[in-house]
Design brief:
With 238 residues, the chain is of the alpha/beta class. It contains nine helices and five strands, in the order ββαββαβααααααα. It has a five-stranded mixed beta sheet. A hairpin with a 6-residue loop joins strand 3 and strand 4. Helix 5 packs across helix 6. The chain is elongated. 30% of the residues are buried.
Length: 238
């Protein structure tokens, strides 16, 4: 990503001059911030945050390093080291955040939403892959999660089903003629009923897990995923 850097020497910037990007690819700083805060309080911020000029003079938008920034604030630091970059567009800023987040625990739905923003900015799946370092298959599969209804994406966030299962669900409901089309979110057609008694696998489900919430009034999330996996294996064998 050296094409976006204008000065690779870290500079100390007041914490009060930093502004979190509202379009940060991570939805939050994470619940496990205590250990990072303790480390920052002891030795400071060792890895500079990546910033770009914000709308107000003297302020800087964080491109990468939101957790380090949050930890620095919690630890009471007055300054943090920073590197400057000047993305040509909001889309390029998202590319930088995605590339920087590759080694972090970026949640599947967060990544899908970030890829969708790049698609909305006019980038193709191939260009997204080339600019962020993800494979074309990863980008395509991640985008397919955006075709899922809100409840299905919530189940992925909560760990009730895996992202892999979400991708398989999205493939199951593709319309004829969609096979070669990019898997991007659309409002042109109404999504089918998901995880309900009308689902094609509902009649095969028998959930005996007492005390668990039944998704769609049929079965728990684990039983739904087991049925989807079994169906996937059967189709692969066929």
């Amino acid at each position: 990503m050296s094409r976006t850097a204008s000065d690779m020497a870290a500079t100390l910037i007041p914490v009060g001059a930093l502004v979190p990007d509202p379009k940060n690819v991570r939805g939050n700083a994470g619940a496990d911030l205590d250990e990072l805060t303790a480390s920052v309080a002891a030795v400071g911020v060792l890895q500079p945050v990546l910033v770009r000029p914000a709308g107000t003079a003297g302020t800087y938008m964080i491109v990468d390093g939101h957790r380090r920034f949050a930890a620095a604030k919690a630890a009471g630091l007055s300054e943090v080291p920073a590197l400057f970059c000047k993305p040509a567009s909001a889309g390029l800023a998202t590319e930088v955040m995605l590339a920087a987040a590759m080694h972090k625990q970026l949640e599947p739905v967060e990544r899908a939403q970030a890829f969708q923003r790049l698609v909305n900015a006019g980038l193709t799946i191939q260009k997204i892959a080339a600019r962020t370092g993800y494979s074309v298959a990863t980008v395509r599969d991640s985008l397919s999660l955006m075709t899922l209804p809100t409840e299905a994406r919530r189940m992925i966030r909560d760990g009730e089903i895996t992202a892999t299962t979400g991708v398989e669900l999205a493939k199951q409901v593709r319309q004829p003629g969609d096979a070669g089309a990019p898997a991007v979110a659309t409002t042109r057609r109404k999504p089918p009923q998901w995880f309900s008694r009308t689902h094609q696998l509902a009649k095969e489900l028998t959930c005996t897990h007492a005390g668990r919430s039944r998704v769609g009034g049929v079965a728990c999330g684990e039983c739904w995923e087991d049925a989807i996996r079994a169906d996937e294996r059967a189709r692969a064998e066929a």
